[in-house]
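Q&A log
Question type: sequence-to-structure
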Amino acid sequence: MPTISSKYRGGKSDVRDCQWIAQLLQHGLLKGSFIPPRFQRDLRDLTRYRTQLANERVRTVNRIHKVLEDGNIKLSSVATDLLGVSGRAMLEALIQGEEDPVKLADLARRRLRGKIPQLKRALQGHLTGHHRFMLKLLSKQLAEQEALIDELDRKIEKQTRPLSAEIDRLDSIPGIDRRVAEVVLAEVGANMEPFPSHKNLASWAGMCPGNEESAGKRQRRRITPGNRWLKRTLAQACWAASHVKNTYLASQYRRLASRRGRKRALIAVGHSMLVIIYHMLKTGTEYADLRADFFDHLEPKRLTRYYLARLEHLGYKVTLQACSATA
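Response status: OK
Response body:
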């Protein structure tokens, strides 16, 4: 073993650490990293590129919004979707040189026609030739991005046909749709053998608290880096699940968000969702929701004392009487 120079004595131990790791590797005591099969790696390339294109599309839409605002066109203050059927028709008319707010507002469709008076005021702007040129380029760029995303969707759908059963099962979880299921299977895979337990999967994905300890003191407990593609997708799925009524995941989010904040609640719900995904893929079972009142039955006595104290604080005197069990 090479000697350690005086430069590292009593200081940093990087050299000794790498020597120790080399010895462990020589004796076969190090576990290999998780390397997915070729099929999964190809699927990862497709889903990650689609995510990047979706992000670029959002930036393009924001640029279109900025150009319209610069021309005093306040379309987004009336129309919820700037690039819906009505919004695209108005945008195309603006590019072609139409300036009459009455004619532009008349392009509204369906429910947006009920807001024609507001649209007339929102479309009273002044677009210059430069604005129209920028909108034309951005519209062309947006169309190209959407065409690429559609092509990727078709390719990913074809690639995931052998995993259609797994995608259908994951699609039954609140907040998860086909696109989220495709990302999960691309990043994690349908085979759970590389992960001995759901704890290993959560640690690998970075959906659990870190363990930063120094001199016997617990430091920050922020989550580990993990897999950023999977983490971002799970956060989006959790936000969608938090708005689904009468579900366990939504109840868990509200319960934690009131005490720990929204961001920590999203991570906690994401961890629960990842545990559910792990067991569904490992055992092949279907999703069974625990319902929104699950936490109410965990500690009924504590919950009863809490509501009694709230009512007494409001000036009420409450007498409890147990209901008879019904058949």
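Response note: The CA atoms of residues 45 and 186 lie 9 Å apart.
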